[in-house]
Amino acid sequence: MDVPEELPVAGTVVLLRTGEHGLEVLLMRRPEHGSFAGAWVFPGGRIEEIDRMPGAGEVDDARRAAIRETSEEVGLDVGELVVLSSWTPPEGIPRRIRTWFFLARSSAGEVRAAAAEVVEHAWITPDEALRRHAAGEWILFPPTWVTLHDLRAFRDADAALAGADQARFYVTRIEGTTFRWEGLRLETQTLPWTLAVE
To answer: DSSP states of 73-123 as a string?
Structure first.
């Protein structure tokens, strides 16, 4: 594998629980300003100095950032995090941040959303989140869309955690109106995007 490009780094937690209709994830809608304005995302944010430890690798710093940001944004503590994926944004965009996605089982307790960062939140099945995006009710950015699409394969939280046995690395390329990764392309001509496997 190539050496990762030097970029600012963030960590994101895909919180899982098993609900009445199977696997559910926690998604939250960002305010209409700032990063991912108006979009539904998983909790997370950039690595800060408090997250860095001497001699630690990027993924470990991202893990600490993901845990801290989840606590700050939705008031939930998380335990063991399983690496799911790494997303490197395309060249040529103004703010490029590589983001590590982690899976974690939700702790007991109610969501306590930070008003400045979370407009609303929902525990929802991946299928229903994707349906709302397809209907134009929600905005999902490509990493969130792809993550939800992949999680549809699992019936509950246990299966999803057991199935994350190998991290996937996505380096985004833009060709015209298409996002491309390893064997995937995501059309961006219209919202919602459509996924095609090449």
So the answer is: HH-------EEEEEEEPPTT-S---EEEEEEEEPPSS-----TTT-SEEEE
End-to-end CA distance of the chain: 22
pLDDT at 4 over 90: no
Q: Provide the CB-side half-sphere exposure for 77 (13 A, CA).
A: 3
Q: How many residues does the chain have?
A: 198
- 10 Å Cβ neighbour count for 10? 20
Report the CATH architecture of 9-172. Alpha-Beta Complex (3.90)
- Rounded Cα distance between 158 and 77, Å, is 18
| Phi, psi for residue 34 in degrees, rounded to 5 | 85, -165
pLDDT digit string, tens, across residues 143-198 = 999 999 999 999 999 999 999 888 888 887 777 777 777 645 555 433 344 444 33
Nearest to 100 by CA among 39, 32, 147, 159: 147
List CB contacts of 39: < 8 A, sequence separation 6 or more.
29, 30, 138, 139, 140, 141, 144
